[in-house]
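User: Show me a protein chain along with its predicted structure.
Assistant: Here is one chain, sequence first, then structure tokens.
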Amino acid sequence: MDFLNGVLSDDQVDDYYEILGCNELSNTEQILTEYRIKAKQIHPDKNKTESGLKANAEFAKLQKAKEVLTNPKLRKEYNFWKSSGLSISFELWKSMQAQTKTTMHWAHKVKYNPMLESTGENKDCHQTSSTFSENTPSEEILKQFRNYKI
């Protein structure tokens, strides 16, 4: 019944990468840095403007995101769950993992963009290669070089 309630509920599923402000390509060091920055901003003791319960809930989500994404095994499972497109929470999916693992074997979607945008073609690179091919020594010069005449 919990599964059915989890699927039918309209609760928004938390994206741990979004909570921390990073993406799937971030390494553990980047995740920890983002965690420290966010923790200073939303820590319940530092942030007196929000209600106590809301601040505690936000900080708990932040801690859970850090816990999952800094553990290599949990992070791999989280990425697998995230790519599945299921509308249930990661915790619910994890609790049912033994039953669902055999039914979740289809292709893994990769849908993230690189951090840096391409600046287009590098014209200097093309000019260098064409200039190099035009200035290659002829067979006669190579022959003289090999015979120690140059």
